[in-house]
Each structure stands twice: as structure tokens, then as C-alpha cells.
Design brief:
This protein has 484 residues and is of the alpha/beta class. It has a domain at 54-372: Metal-dependent hydrolases (TIM Barrel, Alpha-Beta Barrel). It is built from 12 helices and 19 strands. The protein has helices spanning 76-85, 103-114, 132-144, 162-176, 187-199, 206-211, 214-230, 243-254, 265-269, 294-306, 348-358, 364-378, and strands at residues 5-13, 18-26, 29-34, 42-45, 50-53, 55-57, 88-91, 94-96, 120-121, 124-126, 149-153, 179-183, 235-237, 259-263, 311-312, 395-405, 424-434, 437-441, 444-445. Helix 3 (132-144) runs parallel beside helix 4. The longest helix is centred in the middle third of the chain and has 17 residues, at 214-230. The termini are far apart. The structure holds N-(aminocarbonyl)-beta-alanine and zinc ion (3 copies). N-(aminocarbonyl)-beta-alanine is lined by residues 61, 183, 287-288, 315, 317, 340-341. Its EC number is 3.5.2.2. It comes from Marinibacterium profundimaris. Belongs to the metallo-dependent hydrolases superfamily. Hydantoinase/dihydropyrimidinase family. One of its GO terms (molecular function) is metal ion binding.
Length: 484
């Protein structure tokens, strides 16, 4: 058999197994797996290296205006390049509908932005305005195009839908096989805290963490899950940052709810003490939900090891440490007027590999599942996240022993800081491929702008998730038949 590329002599790692073997690639797909393969126009020697599915970044804000109108610092070129340097072969950023916008227009806008990407991409569609024409026509059309995930917010005044709006979207999503992602924080609890803090003049960055209590996340996670159960719709809780939230997810998941969840490196690596750094330095660490404490870090790692989370995602939300980003409202702005979010798309996998695999908290198979395979399954990328004949040759080759010190310059994004600055990590992606084309090799970009392709996605994979039927909507109960 003729191959374009053979990756030879590496240790292949998937979500299911780790074994020595060769990979033959032809026409952008994996064409053969065997103990030994001969030939190949190019042979890559992967001796001493780990060969795994390229990462799939399922939570990133790229070329996206926040609800307060701040544009993220990374566009689809810089964002995808940074992702590639971090071991990712594809990503699914958000396409955000702001109130009054048609979803068709939003998608057209993001299509134009995403044409610069060097890696394959899709979008999760953020919905802030579930008007009838959105629910009845525009969302089904988005779904037909292969956009099979929606995202809603329970917080931020300009995004928050209210429980009724959420039920409407969950219902449309269920009917089409889409999954709804949710940012779960109780909006009124946060606003009430903001008022208390403002009354006392407490507006420094560190009060951001105080203003968004753990209880606000726990309450909203629980509420989101009950809403989804009422209509038996699949739900994905993004950026779980609390012990209580993780425990609720775990309990409901093992009771059969159609539930998925992620956490992020910043909640494992940083704490709310980082918001109290000198001067306005703490603004770099403002994100929502906020950073918590050391006990939470330990508990979240435990939950990662135990399977509470499908994915560890970056929530890359890049706002520079200057007047275009964090300080759009001035360097002395009160915390509610400082842009929310931090970068991390390049650091996600090196951090998870180093602190997870190299430190023995998770297995290599779990690393692959958390970084790639589960995102592909959850979000319907059926040719990605695997090393198997017929799948896309989206592959990352890692040196598991490389020692790396994280610096902002090495993130290859448009940012002027990284919250992970100075961390000493073990393991590094050396070669990254998208559909068989090398895009990063030994610290150099090999990709062409625009070589990424839109991925039309399949419905969410609900195998192993029996779901839930509310008694009142159960046709088998004498009072439930009319509503089904
Ligand atoms: O603080 C964050 N995460 N900003 C990005 C928007 C969001 O809440 O996901
Ligand atoms: Zn060989
Ligand atoms: Zn969020
Ligand atoms: Zn986010």
C-alpha cells in the first residue's frame, strides 16, 4: 500500500489503549495501523514519542464580541495557530448571537472570520434571543448545517435567558439531536453581591472572586440539570469550578441524566489569591466563574480521575492586559467593568499532560479522552478524536520528557500575558497534523492560513445515557399523555 506519510516506531495512545505501532496516512486519512509499515513519501521517526489524536478544543472564544462589546484578542488565524502549538488539530469556538440578531447572519459572519483558520473548526451557537423565528426556523437551519450544539447563559444581564427561555431551547435541541451547553451562575446572586460590594467601595480585582459565590454556581448547575431533566434534553455544563457543582454533576450523571461536563486548567492551577496580586495585576486572573481555592483544585483533580468530566477545556477568552482588552474602561475600572476571561488554548494540553499524566493523577488513555476523544463524541465529530483506519489523520506527536517553562511568547497567540507564566511543565507536542498535513513541527508553524475546514457535525452521542422522564410528562402515567 502507498502512503503519503508513515509515522514509525512511536507509542500510539488512544482513549482505549496504549501500544507500539506504525500509522500509515493517505489522502488525509489514517489508512493503516500495524506493528510495522514500510514505505511512505515521508517517514516520521516517532521513537520515544507518544502518538495520539490531536486535541479538540471544545471551549474557546475566538473573534467573538463579548456582550459588552469587547472583541477577543485572537482571531481565527492567531487563535488556531496558538491551538496548534498547544497540540490541537481542531477546535469548536463559539458563534455568538447578540439580542436582535438573526442566527443566519451570525453564522455567515463567523464563516467569514473562520476562513483564516489553520485547523478544522465548527461552532457552538450561543443564543441570547430565543425569539419564535429563532426557535422555529433559524436553529433547525443551523442544525441542518451541522452545528449541533447550542450554548446559553444563566448569568450576564445581556445574555441570561431565564428558565423559560432555557426550556424552549433545550426542547428544540432535544428534538433535533443537539446538545445545549450552559454557563451556570445565578445572575441575581451575583448582582446582589455586586451591590453589597459597591456600597462598601470594594471594587479592586480581588472582589471579583467574592462577587460570584460558589453557591451561585452550585445553585445554577442544579437548576440547569433539573430544567434539562424536565424535557429530557442533553445538557453540557461548561467550566465547572466548584466542589459542590462537581458533586451534583457526578450524582445526576450516575443517575442516568443526559449530562456532560468540563472543567478547565485555570481552576486546577490557580486560586482566588491570584486576583490579589500587586497593583492591577489581579485583572489578569478575572474570569467567570472565578478562581477558587486549593481544596477545590484537589477535589476537581479527583473528579477528573473518577470520570465526572468528559473534557478539560481551556475557555480561552483572550483580552490583553491593556486598554484594548482588560482595561477598555480604564486601568482603575472597578472589577465589574474589567473584561472577563483569560487565555489558555496553547497551555491546556501541556498543563494537563504534565500535571495529570506525568504526575500520575490520570492515565495516558484518560488524557486522550479528556483532551480529544470525548469532545469528538459529545459534539458529533465522527471522524476525529480517534486513531483508527478511515478517520481523519489529526495527530499530535509528543515528547513526554521535554521540560518546558511556560512563557507568554511561546503561546503564539495575540496576547501579552499568560496566567500560567513561569510554570515548569513536563511533555510537549512536537509535531501536530490536521488531516495528514503537518501544521507545527519542532516549534515552527508549517500551516497555511485558511487550510482549516468547517466540520459538519453529527447529533450528540447519547449511548449509555438513558435520560429521565418527568412523571407529569410520562405518557405511561394517566396524567401525562396529553402533553407528549
Ligand atoms: O470569564 C470568562 N470565561 N469569559 C468568557 C465568557 C464566558 O463566560 O464563557
Ligand atoms: Zn515501523
Ligand atoms: Zn462561560
Ligand atoms: Zn467561555
Amino acid at each position: 500500500m502507498q502512503f503519503d506519510t508513515v509515522i514509525h516506531g512511536g507509542t500510539i495512545a488512544t482513549a482505549d489503549y496504549v501500544a507500539r505501532g506504525d500509522i500509515g496516512i493517505r489522502d488525509g486519512r489514517i489508512a493503516a495501523l500495524a506493528e510495522t509499515l514500510t514505505g511512505g513519501d515521508r517517514r516520521i521517526d516517532a521513537g520515544g514519542r507518544i502518538v495520539m489524536p490531536g486535541g479538540i478544543e471544545a471551549h474557546a472564544h475566538i473573534a467573538q464580541e463579548s456582550s459588552s462589546g469587547v472583541m477577543s484578542a485572537d482571531d481565527y488565524l492567531s487563535g488556531s495557530v496558538s491551538a496548534a502549538f498547544g497540540g490541537n488539530s481542531s477546535f469548536i469556538p463559539f458563534a455568538a448571537q447578540h439580542r436582535g440578531q438573526s442566527v443566519d447572519d451570525v453564522i455567515a459572519t463567523y464563516d467569514a472570520r473562520a476562513a483564516r483558520s489553520v485547523i478544522d473548526y465548527s461552532y457552538h451557537l450561543i443564543i441570547s434571543d430565543p425569539a419564535p423565528e429563532v426557535l422555529e426556523d433559524q436553529l433547525p437551519r443551523a442544525f441542518e448545517r451541522g452545528i449541533t450544539s447550542f450554548k446559553v447563559f444563566m448569568t450576564y444581564d445581556l445574555m441570561n435567558l431565564g428558565d423559560g427561555g432555557m426550556l424552549d431551547i433545550l426542547t428544540v435541541a432535544r428534538e433535533h439531536g443537539a446538545i445545549t451547553m450552559v454557563h451556570a451562575e445565578n445572575n441575581d446572586m451575583v448582582k446582589w453581591m455586586n451591590r453589597k460590594l459597591a456600597d462598601k467601595g470594594l471594587t479592586a480585582p480581588k472582589y471579583h472572586a467574592i462577587s460570584r459565590p460558589e453557591l451561585a454556581e452550585e445553585e445554577a448547575i442544579n437548576r440547569a440539570i433539573q430544567l434539562a431533566k424536565l424535557v429530557d434534553a442533553p445538557l453540557f455544563i461548561v467550566h465547572v469550578s466548584t466542589i459542590g457543582g462537581a458533586e451534583i454533576v457526578r450524582r445526576e450523571k450516575f443517575n442516568g441524566a443526559k449530562l456532560f461536563a468540563e472543567t478547565c486548567p485555570q481552576y486546577l492551577a490557580l486560586t482566588r489569591e491570584d486576583l490579589d496580586r500587586p497593583g492591577v495585576e489581579g485583572a489578569k486572573y478575572i474570569c467567570s466563574p472565578p478562581l477558587r481555592d486549593h481544596a477545590t483544585q484537589d477535589a476537581l483533580w479527583h473528579h477528573i480521575g473518577q470520570g465526572t468530566f468528559e473534557s478539560v477545556s481551556s475557555d480561552h477568552a483572550p483580552y490583553r492586559f491593556d486598554e484594548t482588552g482588560k482595561f477598555l474602561n480604564g486601568r482603575d475600572a472597578p472589577y465589574p467593568k474589567i473584561a472577563n476571561g483569560m487565555p489558555g488554548i496553547a497551555a491546556r494540553l501541556p498543563y494537563l499532560f504534565s500535571e495529570g499524566v506525568a504526575k500520575g493523577r490520570i492515565t495516558l488513555e484518560q488524557f486522550v479522552a479528556l483532551s480529544s476523544t470525548n469532545a469528538a463524541k459529545t459534539f458529533g465529530c465522527d471522524r476525529k478524536g480517534l486513531i483508527a483506519p478511515g478517520t481523519d489523520a489529526d495527530i499530535a506527536i509528543w515528547d513526554p520528557e521535554a521540560r518546558v517553562t511556560v512563557t507568554a511568547a511561546d503561546q503564539h497567540d495575540n496576547m501579552d500575558y499568560t496566567p500560567f507564566e513561569g510554570m515548569e511543565l513536563t511533555g510537549k507536542p512536537e509535531i501536530v497534523m490536521t488531516r495528514g498535513a503537518v501544521i507545527v513541527e519542532n516549534g515552527e508553524l508549517k500551516a497555511q492560513e485558511g487550510q482549516g475546514r468547517f466540520v459538519a457535525r453529527q447529533p450528540v452521542d447519547l449511548r449509555g445515557k438513558p435520560g429521565f422522564t418527568a412523571k407529569e410528562l410520562d405518557p405511561a402515567q394517566n396524567f401525562g399523555a396529553e402533553l407528549r
